[in-house]
């Protein structure tokens, strides 16, 4: 535990130091140095817990009522700490390159390092008050990071949306902890667990608590109707911050659910149904909306919603297994979901890094202004391709590994019991397949439009490859994507104690179930790995054979016709059109068309825009109504000093009389 | 128990409060505050006549000096330098103000009966008078426009607190009393200077015009 706290102190001191020094260069060195020294040190105890299965605890007096400064690293915390610390360190390397020309280095490093600390505290806190404090700190620090480029109007708007959303979520959590603490008589998680072990909560209370947790944690995680802040905040934030927020910060919502739901007693079956429903809606709608976007980072933000959906499907399967008493379903559901948490952190971090390099080089996130970047930015392009393959769930990368475990789990679920109980598992299977297919389409579009073809604008023509720091970060994450796939078995094995604790099954039972998925997985990975190596070998051979001869390069889409212009390519909306048309009742894409008219047409335009469904039909009207109601109360704020004193005096007097 | 001297002083305090409500000139208000300073010092002495000691004497003289001489001097000087005109400028007229003042009396008497205070006080009137002075101070804060009258209302409010304090002098340490007095001194200084500067900048000290900055 000493190493853990010491590592976090390094992070924090690095951040504060970066703020205090005046030179840009030193602030970068101190901030990034703090992260690069602190994260590996803090990782030591985390790995110890993961692979030796012991628990580390730290207790310190705290004078806050109902609070106690109680930290504990158990296997579940450790599994979430792994991506938090890893991605923070790599993002710090990336940020050094990304922020090279930026003025406000000091404040950035302060908030970035403190965000990492607060995320680490969220997953190790074992007391309700401490948890909420860390949770709020995390929200505030990330708010300041999102609003980093606050001179831009859109960034200010996005960060406000984020701040409002996250605080609404916290409000639900506050009620959750109040009710739970009242029922258990304590806010220490260990004591709540002890209480729920020998006393079952009334089912109404447990159900209410479950729903509060879903809304509170789901807002942070980005469950579909609560996701509105994601597509706003991620494009606005600096890219490495988006990577950290999307890669690990939203996972703290998943962590919260996994930590809290077992405290509520045995899960009821409708909880699992609800989780699977949320997973399906987030997954399918997330990827559909991603498909319709033109903004690269917005597209990635919707993919975060999709992947949270996949993780939630895993959670749903797991809790379904606990509720109906099916061991394979429980183990494989939780294992797949948790493994996907790690994998998503790796490949989504990499994707945001890639998008950041593109933005850095071209100054735009609009896919229709890019194109042909592969030629000038081979490193960014190649790593983005690896991440795209991983996020689509294709072998031999890590996305495939975790989704495969989920598939196996769902198949076990379909076969093993009655029709009605099999229904959710069946829905998971179909949903995963649909999500996977649509994700393929979406990343074919994203990669194709941005990196292949011809440059669509001048900005995309005169580009430079990302700097050394950014390249190092991207390559490191690409390697981690491969590693996570081929180390799938040890990683999943390290999950055994965590799953045993969530599902309150004995460790041996859990361990016995895992080979169901890991055996075929290993085989598949080996075969596809060999095929990939073979392909690479052939490519190298071809290159070698061609090295002596002259190779002619022609314009892409040239097809022998030399009058082609870069505008005669698929655009991001035209590529996705067949699919978006199919789902148009959900997507509601607005078209603005100036059609081609007459024999000698002048100009024609097509502009498409896909607003967020839930923002349009739920949030905008709701907030409008609230604003209207508040405007009715405007008269209270008269702006008159005497009136304000009257309010205070009258309040005091009423309180005095009332209390006497 | 109900010493006639103390009763007289308390009644005089009530009367000065009412004079505050009814006076239309800033200069007169300042004189009323000065008079209250004398009454307070006398009250401190009268309440502790049997146990006169250094503490009590120090407090009485500090109160007399600060409230009767120092504050009026600062305020008069501020008015002169800021060239404020003498009208009080009420939001609520003097007639209605007096009426409300009359209504506040039974309220503070009733509140006085309900307040659980530790032991028998020198006079049954002392808590109601303290409350009444505070309430009048609050009312004046709300109902007068000029910044200078706000300072005066604030002083009245503080006088109410002092009456409370001297009633419980045995319980409240001297240091606390002197502390509040010092606080107040600082506040009046700042306000005197602020008043002057507001006047320099905006050419008036009408605090109701501060709503200009609303939103």
Brief synopsis:
The complex is a heterodimer of chains A (660) and B (215). Chain A has 660 residues and is mainly alpha-helical. Chain A has helices at 2-20, 24-52, 75-98, 105-124, 128-146, 153-184, 189-198, 203-221, 229-236, 239-249, 251-260, 269-291, 296-324, 327-362, 373-376, 378-391, 398-416, 419-451, 458-461, 468-486, 488-494, 496-503, 507-513, 515-546, 572-582, 584-587, 613-631, 641-659; strands at residues 56-60, 69-73, 590-594, 605-609.
Which characteristics define this entry?
heterodimer, A: 660 residues, mainly alpha, 4 domains, two-stranded antiparallel sheet, two-stranded antiparallel ribbon, 28 helices, B: 215 residues, 74% helix
Shape of chain A: globular
CA-atom Rg of chain B in angstroms:
18 Å
* Tally of strands of chain B: 0
Distance between the termini of chain B: 55 Å
Helix proportion range of chain A = over 70%
Rounded to the nearest angstrom, the radius of gyration of chain A is 26 Å
Count of discrete structural domains of chain B: 1
Backbone shape of chain B: globular
Helix content of chain B: over 70%
Please tell me about this protein's structure.
The complex is a heterodimer of chains A (660) and B (215). Chain A is mainly alpha-helical and 660 residues long. Helix content of chain A is 74%, strand content 3%. Chain A contains 28 helices and 4 strands. Chain A has a two-stranded antiparallel sheet with strand order 1-2. In chain A, strands 3-4 form a two-stranded antiparallel sheet. The model of chain A has no long low-confidence stretch (mean pLDDT 89). Chain B is built from 7 helices and no strands. The relative contact order of chain B is 0.15. The chains are: A mainly alpha (660), B mainly alpha (215). Chains A and B meet through helix 28 of A and helix 5 of B.
């Amino acid at each position: 535990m000493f190493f853990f706290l010491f590592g976090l102190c390094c992070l924090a001191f690095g951040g504060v130091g970066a703020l205090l020094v005046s030179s840009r260069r030193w602030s970068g060195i101190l901030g990034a140095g703090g992260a690069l020294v602190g994260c590996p040190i803090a990782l030591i105890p985390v790995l110890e817990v993961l692979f030796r299965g012991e628990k580390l605890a730290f207790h310190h007096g705290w004078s806050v009522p109902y609070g106690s400064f109680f930290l504990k690293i158990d296997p579940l915390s450790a599994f979430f700490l792994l991506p938090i610390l890893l991605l923070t360190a790599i993002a710090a390397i990336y940020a050094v390159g990304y922020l090279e020309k930026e003025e406000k280095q000091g404040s950035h490093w302060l908030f970035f390092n403190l965000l990492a600390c607060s995320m680490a505290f969220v997953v190790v806190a074992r007391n309700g008050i401490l948890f909420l404090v860390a949770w709020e700190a995390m929200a505030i620090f990330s708010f300041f990071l999102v609003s980093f480029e606050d001179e831009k109007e859109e960034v200010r708007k996005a960060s406000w949306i984020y701040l409002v959303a996250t605080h609404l979520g916290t409000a639900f959590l506050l009620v959750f902890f109040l009710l739970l603490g009242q029922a258990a008589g304590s806010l220490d998680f260990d004591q709540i667990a002890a209480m729920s072990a020998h006393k079952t909560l009334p089912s109404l209370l447990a159900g209410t608590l479950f729903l509060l947790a879903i809304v509170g944690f789901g807002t942070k995680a980005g469950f579909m109707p609560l996701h509105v802040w994601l597509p706003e905040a991620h494009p606005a934030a600096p890219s490495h911050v988006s990577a950290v927020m999307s890669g690990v910060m939203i996972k703290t919502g998943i962590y919260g659910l996994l930590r809290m739901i077992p405290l509520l007693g045995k899960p009821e079956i409708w909880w699992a149904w609800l989780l699977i429903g949320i997973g399906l809606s987030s997954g399918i709608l997330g990827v559909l909306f991603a498909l319709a976007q033109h903004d690269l980072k917005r597209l990635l933000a919707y993919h975060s919603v999709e992947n949270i959906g996949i993780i939630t499907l895993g959670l749903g399967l797991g809790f379904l297994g606990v509720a109906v008493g099916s061991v394979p379903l429980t183990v494989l559901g939780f294992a797949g979901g948790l493994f996907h948490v790690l994998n998503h952190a790796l490949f989504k971090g990499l994707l945001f890094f890639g998008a950041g390099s593109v933005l850095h080089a071209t100054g735009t996130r609009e896919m229709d202004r890019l194109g042909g970047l592969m030629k000038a930015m081979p490193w960014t392009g190649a790593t983005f391709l690896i991440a795209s393959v991983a996020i689509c769930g294709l072998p031999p990368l890590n996305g495939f590994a975790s989704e495969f475990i989920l598939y196996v789990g769902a198949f076990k679920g379909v076969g093993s019991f009655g029709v009605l109980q099999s229904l959710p598992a069946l829905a998971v299977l179909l949903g995963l397949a649909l999500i996977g297919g649509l994700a393929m389409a979406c990343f074919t579009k994203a990669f194709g439009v941005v990196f292949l073809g011809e440059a669509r604008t001048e900005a995309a023509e005169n580009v430079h490859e990302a700097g050394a720091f950014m390249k190092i970060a991207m390559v490191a994450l690409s390697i981690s994507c491969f590693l996570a796939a081929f180390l799938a078995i040890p990683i999943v094995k390290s999950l055994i104690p965590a799953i045993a604790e969530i599902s309150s099954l004995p460790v041996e039972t859990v361990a016995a179930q895992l080979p169901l998925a890991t055996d075929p997985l290993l085989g598949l990975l080996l075969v596809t790995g060999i095929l990939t190596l073979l392909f690479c070998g052939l490519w190298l051979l071809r290159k070698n054979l061609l090295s002596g001869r002259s190779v002619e390069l022609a314009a892409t889409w040239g097809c022998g016709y030399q009058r082609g212009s870069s505008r005669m390519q698929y655009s991001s909306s035209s590529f996705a059109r067949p699919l978006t048309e199919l789902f148009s009742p959900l997507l509601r894409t607005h078209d603005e068309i100036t059609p081609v008219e007459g024999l000698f047409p002048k100009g024609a335009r097509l502009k498409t825009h896909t607003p967020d469904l839930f923002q349009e039909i739920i949030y905008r009207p709701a907030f409008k109504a609230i604003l209207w109601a508040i405007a009715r109360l405007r008269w209270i704020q008269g702006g008159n000093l005497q009136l304000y004193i009257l309010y205070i005096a009258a309040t005091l007097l009423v309180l005095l009389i009332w209390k006497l | 128990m109900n010493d006639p001297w103390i009763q007289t002083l308390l009644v005089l305090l009530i009367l000065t409060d009412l004079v505050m409500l009814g006076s239309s000139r800033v200069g007169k208000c300042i004189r009323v505050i000065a008079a209250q300073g004398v009454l307070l010092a006398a009250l401190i002495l009268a309440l502790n006549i049997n146990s006169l000691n250094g503490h009590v004497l120090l407090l009485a003289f500090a109160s007399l000096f600060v409230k009767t001489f120092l504050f009026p001097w600062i305020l008069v000087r501020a008015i002169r330098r800021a060239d404020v005109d003498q009208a009080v400028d009420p939001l609520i007229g003097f007639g209605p103000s007096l009426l409300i003042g009359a209504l506040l009396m039974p309220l503070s008497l009733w509140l006085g009966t309900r307040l659980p205070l530790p032991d028998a006080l020198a006079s049954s009137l002392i808590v109601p008078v303290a409350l009444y002075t505070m309430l009048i101070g609050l009312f004046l804060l709300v109902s007068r426009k000029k910044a200078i009258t706000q300072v005066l209302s604030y002083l009245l409010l503080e006088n109410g607190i002092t009456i409370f304090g001297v009633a419980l002098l045995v319980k409240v340490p001297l240091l606390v009393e002197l502390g509040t007095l010092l606080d107040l001194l600082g506040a009046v200084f700042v306000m005197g200077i602020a008043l002057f500067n507001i006047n320099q900048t905006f050419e008036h000290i009408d605090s109701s015009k501060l709503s200009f900055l609303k939103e």
